[in-house]
């Protein structure tokens, strides 16, 4: 591993600067910039599935911007590459942006690949549905989405955005050797789709944002397309047990509200969704207050409190279904742009808690350091049965198998065929059978939401070089 780290560092240093010098004169009318990040992760314990405590990755992101036609037209190109020494799924490349923008008198047309953000709140953005999550790069990172976006601006009625989303991008997931993954690996090579959708689908979205008063801003949105958040089925292969992502069509109606008054900010995001699997509602409600010039200094502190709710309860694909988020954001307003955010998520029903810290500051003029730390303060311990029959009885009523994606008769027939082919001993003596069933039982547990993710305490440090 040490040799890998040294080799990657030397190659990246030797490669990036000449590449930058070579590309810059090719497009003289535009401006190139780039950044290289060296990321180190340290986990408090070895991985549950044999992963190491240390991991190093390298990333490169460039940006080319060109303008012409009296700045009425512009092009932006943002390539992204990451190399990870531990998880081959995390080593990947993406085009974050390859976008042409034409600006009219009161309208803009954006065509190409880009990323769009919807939302107001801090801990979760339920309305943010346009781009797919790049989960191997971070739970807040997004993949580039091919689209055509027409934005019409009016002085009195706000901004109307119309989106034609060309094709669907599946979510990325950590591999068997990756950290922060589910108990069972997600089989991204065999994703399934509902009968009314597919990877070549054309999705559509609309968003209207406006200023209602000097203190109140509002946005309404509609999305019709493939759900970016998959459901999961099981491959029923106990020699290589895996989860199968299942994507269905959804129709989503969203609302965003933000009210600002004398240092206070009241925020709301809410959605109602119709899908093949189930209809549901989800929302985030938050209050923020900013203390300017904390204790007579230049530091601004914003206190954040949010409540996250999902009508699906334990069947929600994430663990943010009825949780309380609290945190503080600090802006030091200094020459090095020092900022950090400390927060905690708490599930009152299971008493599970996770704390996080994110901070960054510039070092000299060309470097920036980012630090991320997450600590599981309280984590539920799933009660797993040792008996195959007890586990199967528990799974029969679990959200994992009772979501309409797996036919119960199929499970019964599969079990009968397995016993006929391998004998009854396969259920009680096969070394991989019961552990795989226990992982399925763990995934279906409603009382151990944070434990779904192999999530030991860890610290992540990234040094970024800009050039």
Span between termini: 28 Å
Query: What is the multimeric organization of the chains shown?
Result: single chain
In total, how many beta strands?
22
- The gyration radius over C-alpha positions equals 24 Å
Shape: globular
The secondary structure category is: mainly beta
Looking at this protein, list some descriptive labels.
single chain, mainly beta, Porin, 18-stranded antiparallel barrel
Could you explain how this protein is built, in words?
With 467 residues, the chain is mainly beta. The protein has 2 domains: 2-382 and 445-466, Porin (Beta Barrel); 383-444, no CATH class. It is 13% helix and 46% strand. The strands form 2 sheets. The chain has an 18-stranded antiparallel β-barrel. Strand 4 (92-103) and strand 5 (107-114) form a beta hairpin. Helix 2 (388-396) packs parallel to helix 5. The longest helix is centred in the N-terminal third of the chain and has 22 residues, at 2-23. The radius of gyration is 24 Å and the shape is globular. The two termini are 28 Å apart. The model is unreliable at 1-15 (pLDDT under 50).
Give the SSE layout.
Blueprint: H1 2-23, E1 30-43, E2 54-68, E3 73-84, E4 92-103, E5 107-114, E6 145-154, E7 158-166, E8 185-186, E9 192-193, E10 202-211, E11 216-226, E12 231-234, E13 242-247, E14 249-261, E15 264-275, E16 280-291, E17 300-310, E18 322-331, E19 339-346, E20 353-363, E21 367-378, H2 388-396, H3 408-422, H4 425-429, H5 433-444, E22 458-466
Parallel strand pairs: 8-13, 9-13
Antiparallel strand pairs: 1-2, 1-22, 2-3, 3-4, 4-5, 5-6, 6-7, 7-10, 10-11, 11-14, 12-13, 14-15, 15-16, 16-17, 17-18, 18-19, 19-20, 20-21, 21-22
Helix pairs in contact: 2-5
